[in-house]
Design goal:
With 308 residues, this protein is α/β, with parallel strands linked by helices. The chain has 13 helices and six strands. Helix 6 (135-145) packs across helix 8 (158-171) and helix 9 packs across helix 12 (257-281). The longest helix has 25 residues, at 257-281.
Length: 308
Amino acid sequence: MNWTAFAILGPTASGKSRLAMALGETLPIEIVSVDSGQVYRGMDIGTAKPTPEEQARVPHHLIDLVEPTAPYSAGRFREDAIAAVQGVLARGRIPLLVGGTMLYYRALAQGIDALPAADPRLRAEIAAEAAEQGWPAMHAQLAQVDPATASRLPRNDSQRIERALEVYRATGTPLSALHTAPRAVLPFRLLALALMPSDRTALHGRIAERFDAMLKNGLVDELQALRQRYPLHAALPSMRCVGYRQVWRYLERECDVAALRERGIAATRQLAKRQLTWLRSLQEVERFGDAARLAARLRASIDASRTA
């Protein structure tokens, strides 16, 4: 058996999921989600989760794994993704990883560093400091102890700033210095292709259209229902997802609908920018400016792997 998995990566709203579904209509594909928001149950609209009908047409994996109050890490994703891919291969089908969470992809492709487990006490301490001083101040604090990590993080990337400070306070060693441990090798070959639209204006237009559609389809009501069902708070990783973070502020009456829309679109654009930066840094990823060329390359690679 040829043990090869494939991946379609790309920024949000680039059309990678639509392309994957189209390929799944004609090829024996099963999709493995590479999306840090789609792992949470009940977070459907804001993560553009495939509908039940779409999942019935093309099997999906790593969706609806945990409650939005539960932790989910890149390390766990790696374990879950390897198991999912091996299951697809064992069924004689084609595993296609699809998504834009670059941290998850890197964890899968390159392995996980030997880092300490999460420490709830330290996280609460850091969150309390951030509530008082703001995340830019925490970023400045990180720059003092781990300038290498701070230099690659935006000043408001609360989740990763918190983790980097947590690691330093727990170990006394900068996070960047821990990125040198030997990493496990994947038990299958992975060919990754990236859909990177060359027209940034068109991408921004699709981002705005998609966020407007999410609002129209009930994103605010979705989060309101989740808040009634679960003991959520704004610092949870699930509630830091783009879209949900902005709706949370709206529900807390910190902004009106117009500001919600503006902030949601702006945050999604920033996310896309970070995703594109990540993709440019990954040397093993083949990049394509349009979906047709990527699809042709993927089909040829799949055909080659099936006849090898």
